Amino acid sequence: VLRWRGSPAPTRRQWRNLAIMGLTMLVLGNGMVVLAERTVSSGLAATAVASVPLWMALFGAMRGQNASRGEWLGIAIGFLGVVWLNAGSSLTATPQGLILLLIAPIGWAFGSIWARGLDLPSPFMTAAGQMLCGGAMLIVLGLLSGERPTTWPSMNGLLAVAYLCMFGSIVAFTAYVWLLHNVRPALVASYAYVNPVIAVILGVIIGNEHFGGRDFLAMAVILAGVVVLTLARTRAK
Q: Does a structural domain hold residue 1?
């Protein structure tokens, strides 16, 4: 669609950068979480993903963009809030699952920081090219591991994929790529804290799930961490 609308195609160098981003963020990041969730509890997976801001802050420091004290405070508050939110769930895992959960946030954070300042096309084309590269790699890995489509997906399954394509990929992921190049790493990474809060709220609205006072307080702590990060980012300008 972007090419049809007149956007220039990525150059050979840009395709190389997009392929590396697809490998680190989508294959190592998202892919390893998917594999891990076969043998680990959802609470442990959520806590592992919440470590992304910590890794992004560390990788950013290695590139000379140190997080401020306020940003470190916001990261710590948000991470503690996510741990608290998942404290009541069963934190079970296999050794293989734990290794995959360690690789996933490191891969995503490294790819996010590494991409800053690279020769890349526009944010929309960057998101599209990265997902094309990462998706092709994931398909190859799936086939090599013996995965095969056996039945046609249900209508609910197709609608779920369509929703993820539109709102998860085209809207949210493109916004993430734009943020990577326009705001400080610590603030970009705060999405990992907001996700569990949104998941709980949607669970109540759609899945008729219930949460108590402890969950409400944990979400308040998470949002407090995001607020601290946002205020620290404003002062760091």
A: no
Task: For 53-82, write each residue's pLDDT tens digit.
Answer: 888 888 887 777 777 777 788 888 888 877
* Residue corresponding to tokens 């995001």: 226
Domain for residue 117, yes or no?
Answer: yes
pTM of the model: 0.79
Tally of structural domains, the chain: 1
- Angle, helices 95-114/52-62, rounded to nearest 10 degrees: 50
The residue among 22, 3, 6 whose CA lies nearest residue 177 is 22
Measured between alpha carbons, how far is 20 from 10 in angstroms, rounded to an integer? Answer: 14
Residue 7 lies in a domain: no
* Count of other CB atoms within 10 angstroms of residue 30: 16
pLDDT value of residue 123: 84
Considering the domain boundaries, does residue 134 fall inside one? yes
Cβ proximity of 74 and 228 under 8 Å = yes
Q: Which range of residues forms the domain containing residue 29?
A: 12-236
Yes or no: say if 108 and 50 are a contact pair by the CB < 8 Å rule: no
